[in-house]
Amino acid sequence: MKKNFLLKLILLIITFHFIYSTKVNGQSPDLTMKIELPTKEINVGQIIDILKNNYLLLFSYNPQDINFNKTLAFPSNTIILRNLLDKIIENTNINYRLKDRQIVFFKNSKYTLNGFITDEKSQESLINASIYIPSMKIGTMTNNYGFYSLHLPEGKYEVQVSFLGFASKLFEIQLDGNIRKDILLRENSLELDEVQVVSDISQINPDRLGSHNMNAIELKTIPGMLGERDAFKSIQQLPGIVPITDGVSNFSVRGGSFDQNLILIDEAPVFNPVHTVGFFSTINPDAVQSINIYKGDIPAKYGGRISSVIDVHTKEGNKNRFSANGGIGPFTSRLSLESPIGKKVSVIVSGRYSYSGVVLKG
């Protein structure tokens, strides 16, 4: 009799536990299930206890990664599990996953190292500067705004930064979270001995065929006609680009006509970029930061042209101090003014004047 009573009592307890579990968790938990909180403001430790006791969820985490005393505020006492977990890991490098009834918190495996590379003297963005991680044998280049971004596993890295005409920089960084690192490079001129480059033609990268980049340093080193530096005359030194007639800035790329070239200045198309009967371009070379030339395999973002795309990027202006640059020549005069406006804004005003109107008027 006593044994039958104990057996019935055990069966009753098992049945009650099964009914309670079914009521609370009628289906396998997922991230869309609704969670009832006792109050709208509650700390992380209390939330985990509620999920364990009321919803029979299991947790796996490193206690050092979770701030149990962090107080969270919610607009309502009822909240979806996904939103609840997102709030717990907000502004941290922790992520989570739900498998069966277990929630696992874990650290992100990769972090982002990014920033801007600029000229130390003028604060100009440096386009196509190189950032390289020797230990990982990976790297990247800055975009048209001087911005770079690398995704790397957690660890300590040696970073190499270089740009033509500037002193290279080498530094170490401990990457244990997303880091923004702005880099300043100092202009540096070097005199090099003769270098002979011998290479197998099979090693040429086909992705770079038909394209060339010229920065402000290169434009300064290319001599101009009668001392007049000109951006379009400089690119005529490249293979496949020739002037339509001797001495003019209008050019032909691989046999095409001048109007088959797309010319962009800071992403804006320019339809007539020359003056003085075509002898000089309207672009002041002192205001040019870089020129990208595409003679073939033109990127889709430009929309396409029969002959070429000439993408000109101008300077943003000196962000440190006021500066002026100009020159007087036999055919044209030019002037560029740069100045900071506040701490984050700068302005550049650049112009070029031709004497052809004075000569023609007699």
Spatial order of the strands forming the largest sheet: 16-23-24-19-20
Query: Within the CATH hierarchy, at the fold level, what is the topology of the largest domain?
Result: Ferric Hydroxamate Uptake Protein, Chain A, domain 1
Residue share in β-strands:
35-45%
- How would you classify the helix and strand content by structural class? alpha+beta
**Nearest-integer average pLDDT:** 81
Overall shape: elongated
Number of strands: 27
Distance between the termini: 131 Å
CATH architecture field of the largest domain: Beta Complex
Name of the CATH superfamily of the largest domain:
TonB-dependent receptor, plug domain
State the name of the first-level CATH class of the largest domain: Mainly Beta
Alpha-carbon Rg, integer: 33 Å
Query: How much helicity do the residues have?
Result: 10-25%
How many structural domains? 3
Outline the biggest β-sheet.
5 strands, mixed
Characterization of the model:
This protein is 16% helix and 38% strand. The model is unreliable at 18-26 (pLDDT under 50). A hairpin with a 2-residue loop joins strand 19 and strand 20 (268-269). The strands form 9 sheets. Strands 16-23-24-19-20 form a 5-stranded mixed beta sheet. Strands 8, 11, 14 and 15 form a 4-stranded mixed beta sheet that branches. A 4-stranded antiparallel beta sheet has the order 10-9-12-13, with no helix packed on it. It folds into 3 domains: 23-107, 3-Layer(bab) Sandwich (Phage tail protein beta-alpha-beta fold); 110-185, Immunoglobulin-like, CATH 2.60.40.1120; 209-360, TonB-dependent receptor, plug domain (Ferric Hydroxamate Uptake Protein, Chain A, domain 1, Beta Complex). The longest helix has 23 residues, at 2-24. It has 362 residues and is α+β, with helices and mostly antiparallel strands. It is built from 6 helices and 27 strands. The chain has helices at residues 2-24, 44-53, 81-88, 216-221, 231-235, 356-360, and strands at 34-36, 41-43, 58-60, 71-73, 78-80, 94-99, 102-107, 110-119, 130-133, 138-141, 147-153, 155-163, 166-175, 179-180, 183-185, 211-215, 241-243, 251-253, 261-265, 268-269, 274-275, 280-281, 288-294, 308-314, 323-328, 332-341, 345-354.
